[in-house]
Amino acid sequence: MDLILLSGGINDVEVDKILDPSNSSNDIITGYADIEDPMYNVLIKLLNKCDNSKIVVTSYYPIVSEDTPTTALNDFTKFLVLNDPDWGHKAGAALLILSPLTTAGDLTPIALNSIRENSNTFDGNSRGSIGRAVDRANLYSQSHFNAERVSFAPVNFPPERSYGTSTSWLWRLIDTKNGGKTDDHRYDYRISLCDGTHNLFCNWDDKIVAIGHPNVEGAREYERAIKSVIEIRGLEWLDSILPTVQLFQVIPTNLAVGEPLTVDYTVADNGGSGLTQVELWRKNETRDWQEIVPKRNILSGENGPLSGSFTDSPPAPGKYWYGVHVVDNAGNWNDERNSNTNYQPVSFEPIEVEVIQTSTTQCSMACDSAEAESWFERGVAFYDQFEYTEAVECFDEATKICPQYEEAWEKMGDAYLYGSFIFAVFFSDNNPRDAIRCYDEALNINPENANVWNSKGVAYVDLGQYDKAIQCYDEALNIDPQFSAAWYGKGFSQYEQGNFDDALQSVEMAIALNPEIPDYWQEKGDILTALGSDEAQAAFNKAEELKKIHKPIRETEGAVQYD
């Protein structure tokens, strides 16, 4: 769905209530007091359910004006008197106008003025309520979809187009007999449904339901208002033609860990808004599809056909599948299958790649790997007992025997990192630097290890080098976008730099992925406090609640491990 048209308000007040002088303008305002929030809630549901759609919300209009003939209002009110026992007799009506009708059954001057005031009040308040709901919805849309997807289209019904005039843009009552008749072209069809079978439109107010609603000329004014919004936004805002993938291949499909592969593609856009990016997506046997963010190719609005490529190195042995997404400036997207355009003009299946582990990616066969493994296991035992000095010595022996021992380099870095925080003997800037040296050795062996990139980021946090820390966290997230600890570390670093809005987005991602970690909530509270938000205390309370459940195992300034 590309465009959603939405109008609201009149059904919450009803035309006959506006035309009832016993309802004061305050009654109309009260009827509109709750419209803003319901309209906002509807918009949020539509934004989330139809994530590529644009929404145009139209205003209503003043039904009655100073140009509305008194005879037209008298005819309608006489009809209401015959059919609605409550009309003109609301509580307090006597205090307002005594009686809305003269002895001849016509509206009194006070009643006429009351109806006109109600109509103007309705028009003004409805525009304000709907406009505020649209503004709030766009704030949500901007923060969640990085785009304003809602527009407000106010219509303009001048006084001479109001109800009952010779040039009115509204359907009117033309016959008060036999339950009433309106001059809209659907009247006879509605009556045909009241045949005892359908049992629809059989009440008097159902038969005249069209009264006060736009006729053909009024609909054209709505069309003008909607087109005006679209023209202001630009046609790319409404582009509904999806981009397509015209070529897709991966070479090679069999390779060793650390070896690169190339993904070639050709994409095109015929919708006029132009291409904005092509994304590389990957899954393996245990993890579902994820975008490899640093592999995203940013385009400049070309329509194509446009060819390009990615390179990637799968991080570990096993089977992987590759695909691409192409996105245009209107937010439309397609995948390699062209599944969003019914697999047209051509469909490509995700391409399977098998990665094997060779001897060059294992401990060298020339070394005593069993001895290296023994040193490593001893180091893990010391590490688990928080004896980090002894752990470092054991991991160091393992790497001397087997320089390609990735896990030993990683654990030695962890021992330096957490040891520098816990034991006074380790309190030294050299320890985070030693940790970084170990992590670099591990990354030289396997640059796709997200855990190591995250730990390296923590080490830079300990050194107060937040720019470098964020670079490491981004590398981890490029490999694993679901890595909550990396989102937390990135948010912590952004907070320390004073980038509170970005920090909040990062920490909220961490919480969304793992809401049970106390420090995530604590950091959110700190950020909200810095932003002056009243919601900070709720985050602190959640952190305290979780701390009673989860106990920390080990920690340093930029990270905490929980049980």
Q: In terms of structural class, how would the helical and strand content be classed?
A: alpha+beta
What is the count of helical runs? 20
Query: How many distinct domains?
Result: 5
Largest sheet: 7 strands, mixed
Stated plainly, the CATH topology of the largest domain is called Rossmann fold
Strand content: 15-25%
Spans where pLDDT lies below 50 across 5 or more residues = 90-98, 359-367, 422-429, 552-563
CATH class of the largest domain: Alpha Beta
The coarse overall form would be: elongated
Overall pLDDT metric: 81
Distance between the termini: 46 Å
Determine Rg (CA atoms, Å).
34 Å
What CATH architecture of the largest domain do you see? 3-Layer(aba) Sandwich
Count of extended strands: 17
Fraction of helical residues:
40-55%
Looking at this structure, what is the CATH superfamily of the largest domain? SGNH hydrolase
InterPro entries: TPR-like_helical_dom_sf (IPR011990), TPR_rpt (IPR019734), Ycf3/AcsC/BcsC/TPR_MFPF (IPR051685)
Pfam families: TPR_11
TPR repeats: 372-405, 450-483, 484-517
Keywords: Repeat, TPR repeat
